Amino acid sequence: MSERYSRQVLFPGIGKEGQEKISRKHVLIIGAGALGSGSAEILVRAGVGKITIVDRDYVEASNLQRQQLYTEEDVAEKLPKAAAAEKRLKAINSDVIIRSIIGDATPEVLEELIVGVDLMLDATDNFETRMAMNDIAQKYDVPWIYGACVGSFGMSFSIIPGKTPCLNCLLRTIPLQGMTCDTGGIISPAVQMVIAHQTAEALKILVEDWDAVRTSFVSFDVWRNQYTTMKMSKAKFAGCLSCGEERTYPYLDRENMTKTTVLCGRDTVQIRPSSVRGLSLERLAEQLSALGYDVKGNPYLLSVEMEAERMVIFQDGRALIHGTKDLTHAKSIYQRILG
Ligand SMILES: [Zn+2]
């Protein structure tokens, strides 16, 4: 065991004491796409005590170019990313406790998962989840590390409640909303650079080397050879509803949560039922096959082929409808299949 982490222990910033701290920490990673699979692999190899990873999607061929935990076999099996990530991470380091959650990181889910967590990593692709993470971090006093990338561009910022401005504060100076949906493509080195920034900050926070934590907002473009850091000490806004004195945590309000969402950069609509329902996928598969639908599945999900669309149904009743961006049309398909 000591041999396993010897190079990391030799690094003066970590040492034996730091390694022991790392081994006792619990990191919550929201998203198991490109950023999430890279960060999870680095932290699992580094010997973090426990990792919880949450993702709502399943593995597709277009993920393999940059989502390093997945294989062609995962694509063929249509495995949910969280399940495929858990399998691979356990194979990498059996000492780490890995928990995977297949589903949306809603405020409700985050409130449950945050208990006992030392650090959260942002590996999501949507603004709504990031803002909910930001409010949860402030409410439960847990540091988190923002990260995003599109094309060859990426950025990261470490948010320490009580010390740094929060993401809601930053929105007053940086238009981050535009950084949430990639429709124009992405290259893997940009992803890896964000992962490097996020996990370096993660290690500093896990060993509690607070002086080493970067306080600036970093952004870069690996294609255009640009690297910028911005000081953020003045960005903290006293009236901020997420971290200010009169805080209300607006992004944890369930009323603000959309139930139907067009997914990032894809012809896909996600529909989440208003209450979690335990579906028998096996029985549903039988019923749909009897009605003449072409149904394929695994223990986690069912894939149903329709005339123009394909619908993927998860156990909790959540569905992804591929082949449309029309919310009303997607809802009618959902109702037809799941009632
Ligand atoms: Zn704030």
Defining traits:
339 residues, binds zinc ion, alpha/beta, six-stranded antiparallel β-sheet, single chain, eight-stranded mixed β-sheet
Q: What would you note in describing this structure?
A:
This protein is α/β, with parallel strands linked by helices and 339 residues long. Helices cover 32% and strands 21% of the residues. The protein has helices at 6-10, 15-23, 34-46, 72-76, 81-92, 107-113, 127-140, 167-170, 188-206, 281-290, 327-338, and strands at residues 26-30, 50-55, 97-102, 119-122, 144-150, 153-159, 217-221, 226-230, 260-262, 268-271, 294-298, 301-305, 310-314, 319-322. The strands form 2 sheets. Strands 3-2-1-4-5-6-7-8 form an 8-stranded mixed sheet, with helices on both faces. It has a 6-stranded antiparallel sheet with strand order 9-10-14-13-12-11, with helices on one face. Helix 3 (34-46) crosses helix 9. The longest helix has 19 residues, at 188-206. It is globular and about 65 Å long. The N and C termini lie far apart (53 Å). The structure holds zinc ion. The site of zinc ion has 8 residues, from helix 8.
